[in-house]
Design goal:
Largest sheet: 6 strands, parallel
Number of helices: 10
Low-confidence stretches: none
Strand order of the largest sheet: 3-2-1-4-5-6
Number of strands: 6
Helix content: 40-55%
Shape: globular
């Protein structure tokens, strides 16, 4: 492992790419629950937005096969141009290579479909030809079977890809809870997308810190009546 891979991900040293988060691609995913996959993908996107991470969104054969990118993902970046391709390997498209180069950061956080095809070929080529470091977000990516996903992850890891999860990336970017400029947004994201962790945050805020409940309107609770 190179010394540069020992560096923690920061908002200043990394960029983000979403590859083919499209419905037809998601239909074939069997390695992870597809609603969980979407939740994690959108959570990662919102994390990138909070920390102003340069982000690329690329798609393959949208109108002829794959369909359009998740609307929830596109809405995180309303002004983002989507880079359409014909190749399964995003690295083959000059627009994608130019976008990555323009961002000027060698650590590339990757989430995409499918792990064993689009993610793997992009990662290997980006490392070999572009000298990028790849951080593969395993739980915001999916393969056509658990074995396909796992073996693709192993192949990439053996080649030097760093495996991560979306929440790991989020908290690595935050790093210190004293960073108040992003604290509230991170906590809001956690409560929306982080499952049990988010529930724990809600519990701590209301039960320990006596914050109001996180509801749009107040809800009255009727007192219990003891059993006879």
């Amino acid at each position: 492992m190179t010394q540069s891979k020992l560096e923690v991900l920061t908002p200043q040293n990394s960029q983000l790419i979403f590859i083919d988060h499209q419905p037809q691609m998601a239909f074939g995913v069997q390695s992870i629950d597809r609603q969980v996959l979407k939740n994690n993908t959108v959570g990662l996107a919102k994390a990138g937005k909070i920390f102003n991470i340069p982000t690329t969104i690329t798609t393959v054969e949208s109108e002829s096969f794959s369909g359009y990118t998740y609307p929830e993902l596109l809405d995180v970046f309303p002004d983002q141009k989507v880079l359409e391709r014909t190749s399964m390997n995003s690295w083959d498209d000059q627009k994608v290579r130019d976008a990555l180069a323009a961002n000027g950061r060698k650590k590339v956080v990757v989430a995409g479909l499918w792990t064993e095809v689009c993610n793997t070929t992009f990662s290997l080529c980006a490392m070999l030809e572009g000298q990028y470091e790849i951080y593969m977000v395993s739980d915001a990516s999916g393969g056509t079977s658990k074995e396909a996903h796992d073996q693709a992850m192993q192949r990439m890891i053996q080649a030097g890809v760093v495996p991560v999860t979306w929440q790991q990336v989020l908290l690595e970017w935050q790093r210190d809870w004293a960073r108040r400029e992003t604290y509230d947004a991170v906590m809001a994201l956690v409560k929306e997308h982080s499952g049990a962790y988010g529930m724990g945050v809600d519990y701590a805020y209301t039960m320990v810190h006596k914050a109001p409940q996180r509801t749009r309107t107040a809800h009255e609770a009727l007192a219990p009546i003891a059993a006879r």
